[in-house]
Amino acid sequence: MPDFNWILKMAMRDFRKNLSRLLLFVSSIVVGIAALVAISSFGENLVKDIDNQAKELLGADLVLENNKPLGDQALDSVAIQLASEVNFASMVAFPKTDASRLTQVRALEGDFPFYGKLETIPSEGDADFRSGGKKALVEKTLMAQFDAQVGDSIKVGSVMFRIVGELQKVPGQTGITATVAPAVYIPMAYLEETGLVQYGSRVEYNRYLQFASGTNVEELIKPFEDQWEMDRVDADTVEDRKRSTGRSFGNLSNFLSLVAFIALLLGCVGVASAVNVFVKEKLASVAVLRCLGVASLDVLLIYLVEIVVMGLFGALIGSILGTLLQFILPAVFADFLPVEVTVGISWVSVGFGMITGLFVSVLFALLPLLKVRNVSPMATLRPETADSTLLKDPARWAVMVGILLFIFGFSYFLLKQVTWALGFTGFVLVAFGALWGVGKLIMWAVRKFLPISLSYPWRQALANLYRPNNQTISLIATIGLGTAMISTLFFLQNQLLEEAKFADKEDQPNMLMFDIQTPQLADVKSKVVDRKMRIIQEVPIVTMQLNEINGIDKKENEELPDEENYSRWLYNREFRVTYRDTLIKSETLTSGELIPLGARGDSIFVSLEKGFGEGNKMKLGDELIFNVQGRPIKTYIGSFRDVKFNQVSTNFLVLFPEGVLEQAPKFHVIITKTQNDRQAADVQSEIVREFPNISIINLGTIVETLEDILGKISFVIQFMAFFSIATGILVLISSLIISKYQRMRESILLRTLGASSGIVRVINTLEYFFLGSLASLSGILLSFMATFLLGEFVFEMNFSLVWKEGLIIYLAITGLTIVLGWLNGRRIINQPPMEILRGNG
Amino acid sequence: MSILSIQNLSKTYQSGSRKLTVLENVNFEIQAGETISIVGPSGSGKTTLLGLCAGLDSGSTGSVVLNGQALEKLNEDQRAAVRNKDVGFIFQNFQLLPTLTALENVMVPLELKKRKDAKEKALELLEKVGLKDRATHYPTQLSGGEQQRVSIARAFANEPKILFADEPTGNLDTETGEMIEKLIFDLNTEKGTTLVLVTHDLELAAKTRRIIHIKGGKIQEDAHA
Ligand SMILES: Nc1ncnc2c1ncn2[C@@H]1O[C@H](COP(=O)(O)OP(=O)(O)O)[C@@H](O)[C@H]1O
Ligand SMILES: [Mg+2]
Prior knowledge:
The structure holds 2 protein chains of 2 kinds.
Chain A: H1 4-52, H2 54-58, E1 62-66, E2 81-94, E3 99-110, E4 119-121, H3 125-130, E5 135-139, H4 140-145, E6 153-156, E7 159-169, H5 175-180, E8 183-187, H6 191-194, E9 203-210, H7 217-221, H8 225-231, E10 234-237, H9 238-291, H10 296-325, H11 329-332, H12 347-369, H13 394-415, H14 418-449, H15 456-465, H16 472-502, E11 511-517, H17 518-530, E12 535-549, E13 552-553, H18 554-559, H19 568-572, E14 575-579, E15 587-592, E16 605-609, H20 610-615, E17 623-628, E18 631-643, E19 654-656, E20 667-672, H21 677-690, E21 695-698, H22 699-738, H23 740-752, H24 757-795, H25 803-830, H26 833-837
Parallel strand pairs in A: 3-8, 5-7, 14-19, 16-18
Antiparallel strand pairs in A: 1-9, 1-10, 2-3, 2-6, 2-9, 4-7, 5-8, 6-7, 11-20, 11-21, 12-13, 12-14, 12-17, 12-20, 15-18, 16-19, 17-18
Chain B: E1 2-15, E2 18-31, E3 35-39, H1 46-53, E4 61-66, E5 69-70, H2 76-86, E6 87-90, H3 102-112, H4 118-128, H5 144-157, E7 162-166, H6 174-191, E8 194-199, H7 202-205, E9 210-215, E10 218-224
Parallel strand pairs in B: 3-8, 3-9, 6-7, 7-8
Antiparallel strand pairs in B: 1-2, 1-4, 4-5, 9-10
Helix pairs in contact in B: 3-4, 3-5, 4-5, 5-6
């Protein structure tokens, strides 16, 4: 029995000659580890920053929020500072350009935020705004969109304000919020005068309170919580905000870590396939060692030690790179972050990266390395018998189970839910399985269906793909998965935008006007008709709340155990309801029937949106009592409808029959179609000028916003997908280098047999061409499938093949493979051929 | 004293549904210090027999007793220990470890035996085969004859009781081959090792005291000089 020292010594001796090649093996995991460490460090720092900046996130110690004016609150007198805000969506107009847009208007009174500040350009804009007068602060995205300057006017309702500052940053808000609902701040004093707060407007009333420092806010608000609950007042403290923000960003960083983990797994495939080649070359040495009397386990240990050292090295490089990489992450995620993120070394993350890197490289290397134990010493006398793989080696199965457990454990660690972790493990299995399958299939098909009449270089290049020891399948898996990720993203994004643009063609509505008061209705309609635009839908809307579900009111519901009660949200939300006795195009009945008033005695039957009903444990025949402006209306669920939410149309969770709500206070929505952008702009500015309370959305704006947001999201996803692609490239490079000598020997042999160097070059290029094609086609095929499934089941849109984009991706990946192959080939030519002849591979 | 005893040894390979008998009912015994060669045409089963004698593989039936130990009763790792203790090998294609220097190649059996003086001993052996000045060279930096000399040094390093050589000159030119033969026999004489030599070269075989002729997996003749 040799001691461990000797094993170490042998490992190090072997190492000397293999160093550069072993480095290549682990290079595949470097990118994955770097991504993991970067994301994890970023996440750690982010959570820390959220903790530190929680007060600035909220801007106050306590925020009370309701959809009615809040009135005097008992805590008002305890607070050292008070501020109020009324916010709602409304059109604002820029008289300079006669342009208008739906924005989030915030009428502010008091020195909110108490922590942090509204950052403006010029910096004194904030102070100016608060000094009184008809002044406004406007979000920078809005200013840019309408080419507005500080000093310009902005019309909110019927009041004209002067813009005194461009808002750069509002506490707790992200770039995404600013894009979706850009804010305009006006002084509370002029709210009334704007005339915008009317029946039907969805208005939110906020009260901001600051307490003396050191106050235990959680304790302080305890006595009031029940009352707030009854009044539907939402109370938010710094602790609450810390929790919810921390949770959502924790989730985000865990999700991103999973994406990084996929890159790491790709790298692991690279490690396994490289070690496989390594092991095949070592079989002869193994046989000799066995002959000289080294036990099989000890031989395994010699090579395992090398792998461990290299794994540690790879993990270290990865961790260093990752720590550096995180410095650019705040810029990448800038639009999503509500706080300033500090960057710095996170030792927890570095440790995490080191352990993960070491663990995966050993685990995945073991898969091929275990073969070493089964090499017979007889192979010294008869070398061709060395590679006799025992398929049923139980240890190999144990390693495979270990790998699955590791993937499961790792995802569980990030997702903290068994089902999700199982789902992720399943996803990884399916994705790798699908790629492997697709790769095999394509390889089989190429071999089977390619005509034999091909000229020699083509046949030789193809044959090369199937030569023993090469890594065709693992390359297809790694490059393919990277390609699949990027192209799925690309295709989906394209499809979403196409879908939205498509709606503009044909006879689809493209403009939506809402919050139309009943007296304004006739006027608005005639303005639309005057322009020869068709009114596609005119929908009355009544707002109401839900008082009782099957006899259970809000209070009783509170006392029910969690399994039996209804969501509290049902009792708190405001329902916007319309009435009609027919379905519209975007709706289909899934169960029950649409029952008009009077068809079943005098009972009122409503129709619920299917997902909403099912998600809230409601069944056909359930009794719902609504509160319409103080008047209770008893109804029963008569049907469930499936509603497609993907076109410009009004969609309702609850649909009443005709004859019930006609007399209730209501407002209206008109859906129409404009012929062109010019007409859209004209009609919009005309109506906004005359009826500032009416809000208008047109498809053009939606598409623009969508493009903007998709752009921001896809930048992040592309950044993440980059890791996979980079790993694929590293695996490609390392496998090209590993097979360098084999290629060289073949080239020399071909030349000896009389092939011109031109032919040899053509053969090599063709081989890279086939390799790149196979890998990228597998990936693209997989992403077509993924896009189809996502489109069908998640986004509910029609799948259309995006040939052009697919072709571009195909050409890019294949071209890259060929170029890398050439670069590697140049290195081959620079090597003295004598080295090869002597077998110094 | 018998160092190697073969009784009723047979070896069959299953290739598909066909059974291929490579060795059939072989019997012989070798005394300590004997030199013996196994000769026969290519494919007659020489290498197979050598592998079985050295415990690199196990026979289908029969027994191999090496230095008093019945190899068929040991598992692979136990046989490996026996090889390290009692057996030396010289191969047709040298079989040096390519990532180790000449010196380190020779040191391996000594280190496995945990000899403290592994390095000195290995250098001494390299000197005997005339390669002391090439100690730090890797196998690829040596010619075939030089590699075989290193492998001879390695074979004698653990002071084996029995040395197996499979066509040790098969890959070398005549002149170098003769030099290697001389080296093997000289060292063998010096150390008093038992030598089992497989060859199809009758001239080389004639230099051993006993010759076993094998053909079609059966012993044809067992001739003592
Ligand atoms: N693993 C194997 N499976 C099947 N047949 C084998 C195997 N190993 C060797 N043989 C066959 O056994 C016979 C003897 O081989 P070998 O011992 O190498 O002969 P020699 O060394 O005398 O040339 C040959 O016909 C060879 O083909
Ligand atoms: Mg032979």
